[in-house]
Design brief:
Elements (H helix, E strand, L loop, with lengths): L7 E5 L6 H9 L9 E5 L5 H7 L5 E5 L16 H7 L3 E4 L2 H6 L4 H13 L3 E6 L3 H5 L3 H12 L10 E4 L13 H19 L8 E4 L4 H8 L6 E4 L6 H9 L4
Parallel strand pairs: 1-2, 1-8, 2-3, 3-4, 4-5, 5-6, 6-7, 7-8
Helix pairs in contact: 5-7, 7-8, 9-10
Bound molecules: 2-phosphoglycolic acid.
The site of 2-phosphoglycolic acid has 13 residues, from β8.
Length: 249
């Protein structure tokens, strides 16, 4: 963790659960965890109901993607303003599943991030190398290039969040070593400070990829790891809360 930054544990529910299950899972988190901000990101179609269910709780609700345009002829898409209107405060952007399955490149992600900022949503921009890139020794350069291309001006002052998610660690049960996570987070911090100045010292940098109750404490003890973006384990309330409780006080 970084001194002075309030940690954030964010749950990425991906395309899981019925409306009833989403509301039930959210309600099980209602009490929150002292000293830690909790955020849950249900499927976009459930954002409004979950946000209503969480009114007056300590848990924020976010979305999983948005379109870059304000409005228009984009069948099936949802704008950042619509998500804000539905009760979202945050939106996950540039997740590797979007980059891989929807051919989103850094320019696309940057456009969506600008749209999120314009709508008053806090973007969580995801970056991370593939296994081949790590094996070739390119993890740091890939992450630096994605950060440079995916993050627009205004991001840091608006409280934008970055998540380092090595593609090969997502949903696999494998994680980088603590040294590898620390090295990438240090690289990200310095790249952001170089570009945005000292304000980027308080930008939250999350780690994501197979975070579980058993490995969370080790990851959270690392410098410049200010929380986690949790996929699979966020679908079990007890596991998500256990991960949040693993954050040092
Ligand atoms: P995982 O997913 O925790 O299931 O590995 C993380 C993510 O994709 O955000």
């Amino acid at each position: 963790m970084t001194p002075g930054i309030r940690p954030l544990i964010a749950g990425n529910w991906k395309m899981h659960g019925s409306l009833r299950e989403a509301v039930r899972l959210a309600e099980a988190l209602r009490g929150g965890v002292p000293g830690v901000d909790l955020l849950i990101c249900p499927p976009n179609v459930h954002v409004h109901s979950v946000a209503v269910a969480m009114l007056g709780s300590r848990v924020a609700v976010g979305a999983q993607d948005c379109h870059a345009a304000l409005q228009g002829a984009h069948t099936g898409d949802v704008s950042a303003a619509m998500l804000r209107d539905a009760g979202a405060t945050h939106v996950i952007l540039g997740h590797s599943e979007r980059r891989a399955n929807h051919a989103e490149d850094d320019t696309t992600v940057c456009g969506k991030t600008e749209a999120a900022l314009a709508a008053g949503l806090i973007p969580i921009v995801c970056v991370g190398e593939t296994e081949a890139e790590r094996l070739a020794g390119h993890a740091e350069s890939v992450v630096t290039r994605q950060l440079e291309g995916s993050i627009p001006y205004g991001f840091v002052t608006a409280g934008g969040i970055v998540a380092y998610e090595p593609v090969w660690a997502i949903g696999t049960g494998r994680t980088p070593t603590e040294e590898e996570v620390a090295a990438i987070h240090d690289t990200m911090r310095e790249a952001l400070v170089d570009r945005f100045g000292p304000a980027a010292r308080t930008t939250r940098l999350l780690y994501g990829g197979s975070v579980k109750p058993a490995n969370a404490a080790g990851i959270f003890a690392l410098p410049d790891v200010d929380g986690a973006l949790v996929g699979g384990a966020s679908l079990v309330a007890a596991d998500f809360l256990a991960i949040a409780r693993a954050m040092p006080e």
